[in-house]
Amino acid sequence: MNESLALPDYDIAIVGGGMVGSVLAGLLSASGAGWRTVLIDARSPDGLVSDHYEPHYDNRSTAISAGSADILQRLGLWSRLKAHATAITEVHVSDQGHLGGALIDAREQARDALGYVLENAWLAPTLRAAADGAPEVRVLAPAQVTGLLPGRHLSTLTLKGEGAPGTLTARLVVLADGGASDLHRRLGIEQVRRDYQQHAVIANVSFERPHRGRAYERFTPRGPLALLPLDESPQARRAALVWTLPPGEAEALRRAPEPEFLDALQRAFGWRLGRLTRVGERQSWPLALVQAQEQVRSRLVLLGNSAHYLHPVAGQGFNLSLRDAAALAAVLRRARLEGGDPGALPVLNRYVAQRAQDQRLTIQLSDKLVRVFSNRRLGLMALRHLGFVGLDFLPGVKDWFAAQTMGTAGPRAPWEPPVQRLSEMGP
Ligand SMILES: Cc1cc2nc3c(=O)[nH]c(=O)nc-3n(C[C@H](O)[C@H](O)[C@H](O)COP(=O)(O)OP(=O)(O)OC[C@H]3O[C@@H](n4cnc5c(N)ncnc54)[C@H](O)[C@@H]3O)c2cc1C
């Protein structure tokens, strides 16, 4: 059949229902543009979509900037997410082996919080459930996309999975597949990769004293470590640890018996939270900066980790992708109002142009933070240069650092409020 005459099954197909693909599906629906959207994910929704919250010792957490919380609030999801979000009211920055440190306080920034910490075990299923219930969105899971053939008027996807159609067509395909699948490579889209030669050990830890909403950033001779406050009760005082180390040390500590691990962490972190009493399951992540060389082609967009994978120490990966997704939904809404085609290259180029500056600055910021603070000598110089040690005397520098932490610095994503909030939509 002539492809130009064929009616596509969907306007937009999103490959990957991780946090980024799910939030895009929600944003597209809430934009009121009426795009018929399908969200396809290889993972079974069982165990992902949970209605109840259970505190986890064993999962990753995401620091959400105040700017991201604003987007999620306007989408109508924040009240549900906030129930298990911990507000970061202060950030304490210090350097192991040196007295002092700096305190950044939300009140000085005229904010309730500098940001929020959410366990992925709560954030990811809440975003997926919102997409699943959104009008004009169909979720296919578990279903794996095994082939992608972009055409002139529509793209064809090949799917594998019980109950999934063998093929489907869409006018635009968004690859939000996390970058680990090889779909982009098969299209000839290369990634530029810089390996940091570091691993991050991730775990939840417990301690004696209440954290009172304070996050800790500590620079050590082996690499930076961050402790982000989690839901607190008299029974459980917990924080999410991201500890950057040379790969061999990270692996040894990941496998070390609990008392040995807690001892090493206590030496690196100190006693600000009293004795460290427990550590949950430890995971280790190799750290790299990965960027796709092309983010759009006719009928194709790369989003989330597929487009850019950042070092987690600056906590920017999801925040940046959320701003990307908000901008993409807004550009596509405008295309709809103008009677345009969502997969047309001029429409998608508009998205790239809008996002270029924020992406460049955010990627540069996290890359520089990692490289400078991974080097003990340079790290110390930077600390002094930026005035971290005497930050309290340099309010301008402090405001700059706080704005970066909150995701309110630099250019903002062109954000158009959704026509309808997801929480207000019927089933
Ligand atoms: C240790 C660590 C800590 C982090 N902390 C922060 C933080 O504090 N703040 C922050 O902003 N960011 C943080 N990040 C970054 C953040 O986690 C990522 O930006 C985010 O998870 C990217 O989500 P994604 O949806 O793009 O990819 P993924 O989460 O990888 O999702 C991809 C999805 O695609 C599906 N999929 C893959 N291939 C196929 C296929 N062929 N067919 C169908 N489905 C497919 C997968 O099943 C998966 O569900 C951190 C990252 C790490 C590693």
Automatic annotation (TrEMBL):
InterPro entries, alphabetized: FAD-bd (IPR002938), FAD/NAD-bd_sf (IPR036188), UbiH (IPR011295), UbiH/COQ6 (IPR010971), UbiH/COQ6_monooxygenase (IPR051205)
Entry GO MF terms: 2-octaprenyl-6-methoxyphenol hydroxylase activity; FAD binding
Named cofactor requirement(s): FAD
Transmembrane feature ranges: 12-35
Pfam families assigned: FAD_binding_3
PANTHER family, per database record: 2-OCTAPRENYL-6-METHOXYPHENOL HYDROXYLASE, UBIQUINONE BIOSYNTHESIS MONOOXYGENASE COQ6, MITOCHONDRIAL
NCBIfam families, per the entry: PRK05732.1, Ubi-OHases, UbiH
Protein name per its UniProtKB record: 2-octaprenyl-6-methoxyphenol hydroxylase /2-octaprenyl-3-methyl-6-methoxy-1,4-benzoquinol hydroxylase
Record organism: Marinimicrobium koreense
Phylogenetic lineage: Bacteria, Pseudomonadati, Pseudomonadota, Gammaproteobacteria, Cellvibrionales
